[in-house]
Structure formats: structure tokens, C-alpha cells
Design brief:
By secondary structure, the chain is mainly α. The chain contains two helices and two strands, in the order ββαα. The longest helix has 76 residues.
Length: 176
């Protein structure tokens, strides 16, 4: 059975298959158009909400920007006052007269550096004398030890000589 042979009877009216196919295609096209229009209007509403939200956010950002500009202007005024105070302090402290003082300090620093060089030379000489003195002390200590050793040997030799004399006296005078 083909579509052109199909016939539908609705409420006493008969519709042929071709008309039904045309009516179904027209109905589906119309339904697709309605759906597309609905989707389009839905997107338009979303865009409208986004524009309204962006406008509100722009107002908030604008007020924040205005507050920032106001605070920046206040800070600039404070800096201007601080700079004026520093300028006044520099004038009060005679910063311009510092050049002469700096020159004098430079001269004093040069003299100090020369004196320090002399002190370093003296320190080197003192260090050399200390080393020489330490060597002399070691030599003296070695000599004292050698003399103590000789003194001990002399005492032993003296004791042996005294013992020999005592032995000779005993031999010469056995009862005595």
C-alpha cells in the first residue's frame, strides 16, 4: 500500500495520504518555527538580564572608582603637606650649608686614614717585637733548664766527692 492510496476518514471528511503528508510536513515546520522563536526570545531575555546586571555592576564599579579617586586626591594632599614639611625641615637645618661641613669631614677622614696607616705599621712592629720576645723567652727557658740540669749534675758530683773523702777518711782512720 502506497501513501497516495491511503485515505483517512475524519468526521465524515476523507483525507488522502498526500494531503496528510503535506499537512504533517507543514505542521512540523510550523512547530519547528515556534520552537526556534521561543528559543530566540529566551536568549533575548537572558541577554537583557545580562545587560541589566552589567549596568548594575558598572554603577558599583563607578562608585568604587569615584571613592578611589577621592582617596587618591586625599593621599596626594597629604604627600604635598609632607613634602612641604620636609622642605621646611631642610631649610631649618641649613642643608645648603652641609657642603662645607662635608668638606671638613672629608679632610678629617683623610687625616684619620693616614693615622690609621701609621697605627697599622706600629701594630706590625709591635707584633714583630712580641714574636721576638716570645722567642727570647723560649731560649731563656731552655737555658734555665740546661742550667738546672748542670746544677743537678754538679750536686751529684759534689756528693760523690764528699762520699769519696768520707771513704778516704774512714780508710785512713778506721777507728775514728
Amino acid at each position: 500500500m502506497a501513501l497516495q492510496d491511503l485515505e483517512v476518514n475524519v468526521g465524515g471528511t476523507s483525507f488522502k495520504g498526500v494531503y496528510i503528508a503535506v499537512l504533517l510536513s507543514f505542521g512540523s515546520t510550523l512547530a519547528g518555527g515556534i520552537w526556534a522563536a521561543s528559543e530566540f526570545f529566551s536568549r533575548l531575555e537572558a541577554q537583557e538580564r545580562a545587560v541589566v546586571d552589567a549596568g548594575a555592576e558598572a554603577k558599583v564599579l563607578g562608585s568604587q572608582f569615584d571613592n578611589l579617586i577621592e582617596r587618591t586626591n586625599e593621599a596626594l594632599q597629604e604627600y604635598e603637606v609632607a613634602i612641604a614639611n620636609m622642605q621646611q625641615a631642610m631649610d631649618d637645618n641649613d642643608v645648603r650649608g652641609l657642603q662645607a661641613k662635608l668638606t671638613e669631614l672629608g679632610t678629617n677622614l683623610t687625616a684619620i686614614m693616614e693615622a690609621q696607616k701609621e697605627l697599622l705599621d706600629m701594630r706590625d712592629r709591635v707584633s714583630a717585637v712580641e714574636m721576638s720576645n716570645a722567642e727570647a723567652v723560649l731560649k731563656i727557658e731552655n737555658r734555665l733548664q740546661a742550667l738546672n740540669s748542670i746544677d743537678e749534675r754538679m750536686k751529684r758530683i759534689q756528693k760523690e766527692i764528699d762520699d769519696l773523702w768520707d771513704g778516704l777518711d774512714s780508710v785512713a782512720n778506721p777507728l775514728g
